[in-house]
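Model: Ready when you are.
Researcher: Fold this.
Model:
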Amino acid sequence: MGKQAKFIFLSKALGWVLLVAVFTLLILVPLLTSTLLKTSQLPVGALEYWKYIESSQATLMKLLGVIWIFFLGGCFASFLNVVAWRLPRGRGVNGSSMCPFCETELLFSDNLPVYGWIRNSGQCRTCRTPISPRYLIVEIFLGFVFLLIAFFEILTGGSILPFQTPGHSRGFEHLIFDPKWNLIQIASYHLALICLLFTFSLIRSERLQVPRNVFYWGLGIGIGLPLIWPDMTLIAWNIDTHQVINIARASSTQFITIAYGLIAGSACGLLGSWATFNFKRMQEDRVHQSTIEQFNGVDDVIAAMALVGIFLGWQAALSVTLFFFLIQAALLAFKKGNKPSAFTPSAAVFVATLLHLLTWKLLTDFPLWPSPTANTLEIAAGLVVILLISAALRKFSAAQQDLQVG
């Protein structure tokens, strides 16, 4: 039996084991127990083992929750792979997925995240042309990112959200039987931003321009959803903690918050683009893009940071910018040779945003971060720090480019 056949057999076996466990523990046992209790025929000795049954049920629900969230992240990653491949080449995302070499339409099983790639041994099912492992890596990575955000923003009661008291309803059981819709909305909103920034990173990893359509979709989602569900806006523009999550629908405060975020994010993106500008790479990217499709895209760093400002607010844009500069400085410090880094500025914005989300609550207690306890002088000091780092980064980057030219 070959490796592919063994994998398919093992996958089916695990699937059947999981299906039997779900049917037995979550359907059959509760139904049988309820029936026996009604008829008073439940043996007293069986109650001694009930705690083990409950523990097994809780563990199974957690496992199902992890699988579902990971699968959901993988599905989005699969779609983003399609977006990142088609749109920069001037193609639409409508229609069935197909092999880019033999143009055979993919089966449903071929499109299943992770499973489809491994099942076909990383090859097209028909023409056996190798499929880049990037698709597998992207699906696994984004699946874990979805798990990370869901765990900290939903399953722990919003423990990393700023100016929030973590809720007592925690775990997958409460997610199913007592869902906190405000936390689900916030996490979904943040995951939408993560997916947009991740798409930017995928496109720029191939040295292609980010299409304007992707950015416009981000603007529509970032501006439209908070106007419909105000709970998605965590911090108002004036950092009044009484307005956290309770901003009136379509109020002037909501519009001002979005406008301030857009302006601050765009300004930070302009600063980040200036600090990391590489003329040689830009010229090479234009040549590479011209061989595929002639069109004008958007500056990926400016567009990405503008979306960060809209989704998370102008305060968050500052901390994401600081994380971005620290990441870029680390990359330059450890860079070897003249070969361009595969870790693009778009990827740095993505990682910086993820770091910000995971440390958001901690940052609100930091003196230099704009918060109700920070004064104007402290905020100004934080801005000076960002400007100094950007200037140093620009100077260091320019010096390296001069060495490459020389």
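Researcher: Now this one.
Model:
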Amino acid sequence: MRPSAIALAVIVSTAAHADAHADSIIVQSTTSTKNSGLYDYLLPMIEADTGLTVNVVAVGTGQAIKNAERCDGDVLLVHAKAAEERFVAAGFGTERHNLMYNDFVIVGPAEDPAGIAAATSAVDALTRIQRSGSKFASRGDDSGTHKKERALWAAANIDPDPGSGQWYLETGSGMGATLNTGIGVGAYVMTDRATWLKFGNKQDADIRFDGDPALFNQYGVIPVSGDKCPSTNTPGATAFRDWLISDKGQQAIANYQVDGKPLFFPNAD
């Protein structure tokens, strides 16, 4: 092949790669949005309207943030606002937007051995669990759910770590696996409501405590910064973010239900 032909082939190959990249993005996401079926519902609409192929990596929020900081993604969609704001402040994200919310609930066995159905707050519920010696299954994985759970233990002035492996069971796993473990041993579990509504192995477990404002669960969406991560598909990330926070995207989120119950409530800013 002549040198000019080689150069032309390189140019064509590079252009094709750029075009492919322009049409696809990676979303580093919390697991609850995937486990709830939300992406299965939203992505066909997003792809039809924007032309983007959206690839979702669903992990705990802490891991999703680490992945995005390593430039392994174009958009971050998680639920740990303080950590998200630190991500933006460090220059890894361009701007954070509220996207939607739901709440956390505490599920447990039918006999409710800690009596948390009578609790007056989430802190009271956790205090009853610890004092009664009842089992509690924790994700233990630095996810958004785990971060919230640990904040509530701290608010209760309880350190559950001395009970690790006894009454406090850390799975180091996602929400579904933690629910399976907890339900299997008759433990209480804190989970986001969307995952619980979609979860198929409830057995005799059900929501035993909910409704405390402290259990509010806010989700945010953040495009990854092209300044920190030059490989970022900034136009694609922006288009994805803009669709989600648009009137159409917000209405689509509001319309998503399981058994007639909404899983997320839009509140984009």
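Researcher: Key takeaway?
Model: The domain at 3-101+216-266 is CATH 3.40.190.10 (D-Maltodextrin-Binding Protein; domain 2).
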